[in-house]
Structures are given as C-alpha cells and as structure tokens.
Amino acid sequence: MRRAVRFGLLAFGGVVLVSASGPAPDMDGAVKAAMADTGAQGVAVALIDKGQVVSVKTWGARNAKGDPLQPDTILYGASLTKAVFGYLVTQLAAEGKLDLDKPIAAMLAKPIPDYGNVEGYGQWGDLAGDPRWAKVTPRHALTHATGFANFAFLEPDRKLRFHFDPGSNYAYSGEGISLLQFGVEKGLGLSVEAELQRRFFQPLGMTRTSLIWQDRFAGNLADGWDEAGKPEPHDDRSRVRAAGSMDTTIHDLAQMAAAMVRGYGLPKKWRVEYARGTQKIASRTQFPTLNNPAGPGEGTDAKAALGVIAFTGPQGPGWLKGGHNDTTANTLVCLERGQRCVLILGNDVRIEKAFPGLVRAALGETGVPYAWEYGPGAK
Asked: Which one of 29, 31, 321, 379 has the lowest number of neighbouring Cβ atoms within 10 Å?
C-alpha cells in the first residue's frame, strides 16, 4: 500500500545535462549525493537514448551483509509490472484478440459475479447486484478508471465495490488490473507470464525476469530497506499478478523499457495508442486514491494511458510509471523525442525522495507531475 513521502531539494552539484544527441550523462555524482541525503542503501539506474540502452549502473548493497548490488541482481519490479502488462494488452489489441473499449465481461463465458471470489484474482462475487461490472473495459482497467479502490482489503468491510461509474473518473486500482488479467487468462485462455516470456522477455534477452518467483533467482537477490532503514527480506511472489509481481534486474528491465519507447512489436498507430492519454485525472495527488479532489491550482494536466501516465513538458510528450512498496521505490520516465528514458530501481524505499532530482540529472527538465505523483513538496 502506498504511503505518503516527503520531498526536499537535493543537491546534485556538478551533474552535466546533455541532449539526446550527446553522450549519456554520468549519474555517479547525482546518485551518490542522493544516497547520502536519503540514507538509501541500494540504487540501480539505466539510461536509454534513441530507443537503445546506453548505460546500466548500480550503487550500494543488495542486503544487510553488504553484498554489492549488481546489474544482474534480482529486484522487485512492483507496479512497473502494470506498464509492461499494459504493453502486452496493447499488442493483443493490435492483433484483434481483444477490444480495448468493449467490456471485459464480453471476454468471459459467464457474468463476472458468477465466478465468485477467485483466489489469486479478486472478489468478483462482491459485485453481484451492481450492474456496472458489465461496463468495465480493458481501457478502464489500464487507465485506472474502473471505479474500484486500489485493493478490496482497504475497504472498511474488505469487499470490492464501485465508487463511481467506470470511465467517469481516475482512481489508481490494482483490482482493476487484476480483473483485466482475469479476462485475458480465463476469457482468452492466455497465460500472462507465458505471453510476456514469449513475446518480450525471451526475445529481448531478459533471462532474469518473471512475474512469478524462480528458485534460480536466489543466488543474487536484493533484500530491501524500509522508511526507518530496517532491512527486510525479498518477498517471493508465488502467484502471477499483473498488478505488481514482477521480479527483474536493472539490465533486463532496461531492455524492456527501450523496446517500449521504440515501439517494439507494435504497429506505429498502436505504439501511439499505448502512450496516448485518454483518461482525465481529477485528483489532487495520486494517493490516496479516493475522496481526493484537486482544488484550484492543484492536480495535474497529465492523463492516464494504457498502463502509464502521459504528460507534456518542456521537451514534448512523455510518459511515466512508478513502483512502490514498503522497501521498494522504482520509476520509469520516457520522452518521445529522441526515445530517451531513465529507469531507476531502488531496493530502499527512501531513494524515492530523490527521484525528481535524479530524473532531472538524467533527462533535464521533463514536466513529470511530481507534486501529483508523490504529493506536495516533490519537485
């Protein structure tokens, strides 16, 4: 569950910003300063230019013993999984296997509530008696416009329900992503893990990436540090969860990010569709997800796209996705111009405070809506 994070200005003195036509910036000074300011123990950064990975570096430790964080160390992808899943769903739509704007219910053999509460997916039986389940589309799920809370267990009675009509508002929801995963796997008969491996992970050489725990990962695995600096063991994910179960490395996920920004495996119009913001965002900040309306001068002009947030800044259009749990902080920011990205994976949640400065060091001023993404004070 996402927690509020306070931000302050961090000093990244001496970092040289470069254009897309120049060499990759040296992030060493910026990252070391960020780690010193935040206390973060481990950080990995990849830079992408012209749709190709140009730099992959790691700093710090992967565990409390002090073993070094390395480019092939397994890190938790967290909600960056949603961006990858959205890219897969976009490819399925391009192939005509699903329609982004037709109900998920139409993909299934029986009404969604009739499936009951399905372990590993969601509490679909809770939706009985509310006909809005029949209106939720894949686009609603990927743009966080289903009307669900982030997770049903956050509800006072721990039951899944609609808080608004599908498509009428934005509220970040892992439950919505899980419903779409259910439609893909139970309706289309496709394994999300198998499809990602076949279409992307294996062709791109992502040999240490999976949405379900692999025992072979144990030899070079990152534990994490929480907000208080307490180390915690890596959480082995025993189920494929499109909302956030990906284990990966900075090397591997950089290959996926580069593929996504250059449109790998998608016709041009569908690559445009992936990052085209269609869902307006009326919230003051991304979290809390409900009852958080923006007042005058608050919120963001960014819009939700198919698993990412689309924004426009001084360098033109771009998109971003974050990932977070109690011991993890990740971000991916991509600019369409020059197909430039920075990917940051942290096995210490405290590095999240430094993301605005680190992204600026890597890409220059981007226009990422940090005050909305992380809360007032983030810039």
From this structure: 379
Residue located via tokens 């690559």: 271
Residue 339 region by backbone torsions, left for phi larger than 0, else alpha for psi between -120 and 50, else beta? left
Residue 344 has pLDDT above 80, yes or no: yes
User: Mind listing the pLDDT tens digit for each residue in 201-235?
Assistant: 999 999 999 999 999 999 999 999 999 999 999 99
Q: How many CA atoms lie within 13 A of 363 on its CB side?
A: 34
Measured distance CA(33)–CA(39) in Å, rounded: 10
HSE-CB at 176 with a 13 A cutoff on CA atoms is 30
- Residue (of 169, 180, 179) closest to 303 by Cα position: 169
**What is the Cα–Cα distance from 363 to 264, expressed in whole angstroms?**
22
- Closest Cα to residue 320, out of 357, 267, 366? 366
The answer to whether the peptide bond before residue 288 is cis (omega within 30 degrees of 0) is yes
CA distance 91 to 83: 13
Instruction: Output the 3-class SS for 192-253.
Output: HHHHHHHHHHCCCCCCCCECCCCHHHHHHECCEECCCCCEECCCCCCCCCCCCCCEECHHHH
Residue with tokens 């033109």: 316
In whole angstroms, what is the distance from residue 25 CA to residue 22 CA? 8
Q: How far is CA 261 from CA 42, 224, 333, 344, 360, in A?
A: 26, 29, 10, 16, 19
Are β-strands 279-280 and 224-225 bridged in parallel, bridged antiparallel, or unpaired?
Answer: unpaired
Cβ–Cβ under 8 Å, residues 237 and 193: no
Quote the distance between the C-alpha of residue 125 and its chain's center: 28
d(CA 204, CA 34): 31
Residue that the structure tokens 């700093």 belong to? 59
| pLDDT score, position 24 | 79
Concatenated DSSP letters of 278-341: -EE--BSSSSS-SS-B--TT-S-S-EE-SSSEEEEETTEEEEEEEEEETTEEEEEEEETGGGEE
Q: Which of 125, 147, 122, 127 is nearest to 137 (CA)?
A: 147
Q: For residue range 137-174, what is the model confidence (pLDDT) as tens digits?
A: 999 999 999 999 999 999 999 999 999 999 999 999 99
